[in-house]
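Checklist before submission:
- one chain only
- standard amino acids only
- sequence pasted in full

Submission:
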Amino acid sequence: MIEQSGKVSFLAAYRSDLPPHPRFSHIHPKSIPLMLNREDFDMWLDPSLTNTDPFQDLLKTRIRQPLLVEPIKSPATLEQTGQAERIEPD
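Returned file contents:
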């Protein structure tokens, strides 16, 4: 919960996972997080959108942008444990 000048606001987060991607499965063997491009944010967050058809393409397992992945010891320390790897988009 975040309080700003007498108002109470709530910070919410949502994570959606898709089936695994062959070039990402050595990192996440069971799934790949849905990664949206900036131009998809408004549609994804539009509360008035009730027809889910526009989301069908977004819900396909795809690497949409280049990724730089780094193995880490733990999320608490972010200590890198190996070499970074670049994964190109589909």
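Reviewer check: The CA atoms of residues 25 and 31 lie 7 Å apart.
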